Prior knowledge:
The structure holds three protein chains of three kinds.
Chain A: H1 8-29, E1 49-50, E2 53-54, E3 63-68, H2 73-88, E4 91-96, H3 100-110, E5 116-120, H4 124-128, E6 136-141, E7 144-150, H5 155-170
Chain B: H1 2-22, H2 27-50, H3 57-62, H4 69-75, H5 80-98, H6 104-124, H7 148-177, H8 182-213, H9 224-249, H10 253-276, H11 289-313, H12 328-358, H13 368-388, H14 399-422, H15 428-453, H16 460-468, H17 472-494, E1 499-505, E2 510-513, E3 516-527, E4 532-541, E5 548-550, E6 553-557, E7 562-566, E8 568-571, E9 575-584, E10 591-599, H18 601-627
Helix pairs in contact in B: 1-2, 1-6, 2-4, 2-5, 4-7, 5-6, 5-7, 6-7, 6-11, 7-8, 7-10, 8-9, 8-18, 9-10, 9-12, 10-11, 12-13, 13-15, 14-15, 15-17, 17-18
Chain C: H1 2-14, H2 30-41, H3 59-73, H4 78-89, H5 104-126
Helix pairs in contact in C: 2-3, 3-4
Amino acid sequence: MKKPDKKIFYVLPLLFFGILVLIAAIDLTMDKTPNPYHANLIKEVPAFDIDGLSDADFGDAPAVVNFFASWCTPCVAEHPVISDLADEFPVYGINFMDTDEGRRSFLSRLSDPYRKIGIDAQGIAAAAWGISGIPVTFIVRKGKVLYRYDGPVTPKDADSILRLRLKEAAE
Amino acid sequence: MIPELGHFCLILALLCAGVQSFVPQLSARAAKAQFVFCAAALLLLVVCYLVSDLSVVNVVKNSHTLKPFLYKISGAWGNHEGSMLLWVALLSLYGFLMSGRAPVTAVRTQGLTGFGFLSFILLTSNPFGRIHPPPVDGNDLNPLLQDPGLAFHPPLLYMGYVGFSVAFSFAIAALREGKMDQAWARAVKPWVLFAWTALTAGIGLGSWWAYYELGWGGWWFWDPVENASLMPWLLGTALLHSVMVVKKREALKRWTALLAILTFSLSMLGTFLVRSGVLTSVHAFALDPARGIFILGLLGFFTGGALLLYALRAHLLSSDATFAPVSRESSLILNNLFLAVIAATVFTGTMYPLVLQALNAGAISVGPPYFHRTVLPVAVPLIALMAAGPFLPWKKAEMRGVAQKLKLSFAVSVCAALAVFAAATPHPGFSALGIGLAVWLVTGTLAKWAAHAGLPEQSLKNAWPRIRHMKASHWCLALTHAGLGIAIAGMIGTGPWTQEKLEVLEKGQTMDIAGYALTLEDVAPAFGPNYRALRGQVKVTPPGGNDFTLHPEGRYYPVAEKTTVEAAIRTSWRNDIYIVIGEQDSATEGFAVHAWIHPLVPLLWLGYTVMVLGGLIGLAGRKNEKTG
Amino acid sequence: MKPLLLLISIFLLSAPALAGVRPAERMADPVMEARAQALYKNLRCVVCQSQPIAESDSEIAAALRAAVRARIQAGDGDKAVLGYLQDRYGDQILMKPPVKPLTWPLWFLPALFLAAGGYASWRTMKGGGKKA
């Protein structure tokens, strides 16, 4: 005599598969912005000391730290916006993996908005700040990192996000 | 005109697929027609590439008038739309070939699969779309793909992937009819063996390509795309063995049905992962999400439907076969257990980061260290069992007799392992285990082969007629198992024993690696049909051997705006010398020379080849046995 | 000779980086260099698809390699170097995911598969095939 079959076992594969399809459907339909890679993990200004700039150089006032390079096209695009910000707040530049020549021509062609420039020829400062691409812009105050903005800053975001945060930080 | 004709062929093929699945009386004839139209469409796409028809978007995106002839052909499937067309063409080919000798339900299932994927092509990925006005020239094929090895990699891989659709359709038929017997297994086995052989060849070609073309000195990177092809291979291997149990004993029927469904599902998943953009979604060049949703829908329908059928009807496939805990049946159950666990582990490692990302729970990377730690411990007993399993008779086996037959192999492999350990090679424990297993598998398999030939009891002269008339299945077993053993030795060689050195050499300077002296004699520009190159001339002085010269290249493809490195490789039985030339150092004007010594790596390719050969002999032999 | 050099320099301008570690990145101390090479293989290039920084040409991979060398030079152990970058880039920078509650399924499912499958196989083998 055959024992009655436990049919429940035969449903298990279907069940597992259903869950996987559900997850895949969520993944495909999910809005992928903000990109998880850009989550800011550093809360404190990291220790770094490169030619021209170190973490000790930022004063107590809220300041902007901007990574740029002459070979980076979006950096050229955001340059006017950064220059405008520099009229109101101290902006420090970190020149990421660039040549002296490239940096000089970039700054003379466009203008030099930076209070000080650190030369990060090898990218050690970039790794210390945990960035994965440029341009990227940070707001810092008193050794804390308050905000991180990835990609070229648009004029709209400069007003609605960066200026707002900087003013808040100043109070 | 040609593109429209191709498009029209696809529409007709879709209609035929519909008839094949919904009109049982006509399904065999419709299967033939579907194949004719799919093949015509593929041929017409190749023609578009050959004449560089720049009014076709697909050609513009992936070809160039100056591209070499072979890559104009392979360019037709070196892209999303073309590769899906190849996929469907192969699917219809299998449908056509099986239509005469398979249950009607299976042919109809095959037709339905074709219907699904043809509508996918027509609705989201038409390869015959036009562009107006046509541009002056095309964008060229990614230069990494312009390689003879990779020209044939996708057709072989897909032949394997899609080949498992036959087993899938047969399993659906078995579940629907509630009947799976020896005749079913006999009918399905050659298809599974064919798909397995093609997939093995495809994976082998792919890893060979990765080895010599990517210039990283490795051959397997546990990349999700690679894992996508490994999973169907693992389950396909398990299926091949479980079908044997059904064929001999009519046991393991439910498991075999489930395995057939899962193997083809993983083949479809591989297509989904590579083609939907799920894997690349963290990157800037994510593909069209509509395609991803569509393929997911297809996967949900076919796999979900099959598993639903399985849930409802698997209980009908019961078996009365009995066997002892120590028997061939049990050894094959363990084989299936280990293979399925490895496949499930690779699946977990590949999918887990995607799941976390989908649930917004965090970002992690699962790289080679994970797979080494989780897969290798299960692979060890699997390989150990591979040598012993074939000695076990069906139904019931005596441990003692088997041990008697394998004691020589055991002694030899223990000696080999101890020798490796004593030679103090890098990672001595791991290497000793690996080489020991490789020797165990090769010698154990040889012992089984010898037993089939009547050796060593008979003299070689007496055994010769038996060797000549040995059954193809015995050759198949010997070659596939021994092939894996040979490949394992190669893996140990390229894994823990590999030596690597990177130095900056100015012209005339020399570096040493593992006793070899490499002298950079010259670096000069060179030109190819669609690239410019910088060609190094490296004199290699082996320890106590004759000098020879290698020419590693760095190539630049101006149309695709891509650079590639062409490694220079010198192969001998002992090892490969693998040299890549890199960037010029701005400070010293020297060039980066990256050299590897890969001991035993030829064994890896030999092992793949022997495995494929074994599969082919098994297939050819079946035909002879049937007709003879 | 002159035209040849010119040709080479034109070529180099148009073809900047070839696979992986660049010539200028060598560490003077061979022991440290070997450690750095090993660490490069265990760190993922954050903008590439499943590629370690050892093999990537991207700027950020070069930056991460530089950071690894700087940490080694500063006297950090291998664990500390990995930890330094993990703090800044998260778990995804490690090729070997850390064992923590979030990754428990990843690490322990394979053992569970083996246990469950092993139990089912054992039942089948003992039951003489009746179940399968």
